[in-house]
Amino acid sequence: MELTWHGHSTWHVSVGETDLLIDPFFDNPKTDVSPEELDPDYLLLTHGHADHIGDVDRYEDATLVATPELVGYVQDTFGHDSAVGGMGMNLGGTVECGDAFVTMVRADHSNGIDTGYGTSAGMPAGFVVSDSKPTQESDAESSTFYHAGDTSLMVEMREVIGPFLEPDVAALPAGDHFTMGPAQAAIAADWVGADVAIPMHYDSFPPIEIDTDDFVREVEATAGPSEPVVLEGDESYEI
User: Fold this and answer.
1) Partners of residue 238 on adjacent β-strands
2) In angstroms, rounded to a whole number, what is the distance separating the alpha carbons of residues 100 and 15?
3) Can you name the residues that pair with 173 across neighbouring β-strands?
4) Is 183 helix (H, G, I), strand (E, B) or coil?
């Protein structure tokens, strides 16, 4: 499984022959990639805020994976071809997306659509992407990536996501202000038990500018299982 961070919360995930793109928003200072350079099979959306769906209109041929409310909104608003299909799902569900299995998990955040934030897109979410279907049996051979979405620290990480979905790599929002900051993101890494913790959702605009050295220090201070890894924009990491 290859993970490529294109800044903010935008990730390109390759599992076998399947390409997934999570939260497309290329108007951020960490990427030099143009949206047209990518051709994902599936487009995963954690929630409906503009900095997570900003470039959805560039991927009309991709199958949408999001809450039913958000799938409907994107198809109606951005010209996404409803004939291509949308895979509406909800918290706790797992769907098969080509060679990948995608589980939608809880994220504690808001989920209004448009500048007025008056329309709900259902529950905000995170995704756990794996190359094998999750079961109660531990699978050391499986490769698993946790995209936490725009979440605060929550006990679901410690009680459900960590022990049952067993992420190898966790991408955690660390920009503070709208999500967790470095300290809480480090605790989240410890709680999910990921081998590698990567910060995201930072430096895109002034309120979420951070020193990533703080993230590294906080992860190391937990003395947990996670190695902090800070990616450059458009850099890849392979599980």
Assistant:
1) 2
2) 6
3) 200
4) helix
Query: Residue 55: CA atoms inside 13 Å, Cβ hemisphere, count?
Result: 24
Helix, strand, coil content of the chain in percent (nearest 5): 25, 25, 50
Phi-psi region of 102 (alpha: psi -120 to 50; beta: other; left: phi over 0): beta
| DSSP-based three-state secondary structure for 115 | coil
Looking at the chain, how many residues does it have? 239
Kindly list the distances between the CA atom of residue 162 and the CA atoms of 60, 95, 147, 158, 178, in Å, as whole numbers in the listed order.
34, 19, 13, 6, 23
Annotated domain spans of the chain: 2-238
Per residue in 138-195, pLDDT tens? 888 899 999 999 999 999 999 999 999 999 999 999 999 999 999 999 999 999 999 9
End-to-end CA distance of the chain: 5
Angle at 161 between CA 23 and CA 239, to 5 degrees: 65
Q: Tell me which residue of 73, 75, 56 sits closest to 121, measured CA to CA.
A: 73
Q: What is the pTM of this model?
A: 0.95
CA dist., res. 126 & res. 103, Å (int): 8
CATH superfamily to which 2-238 belongs: Ribonuclease Z/Hydroxyacylglutathione hydrolase-like (3.60.15.10)
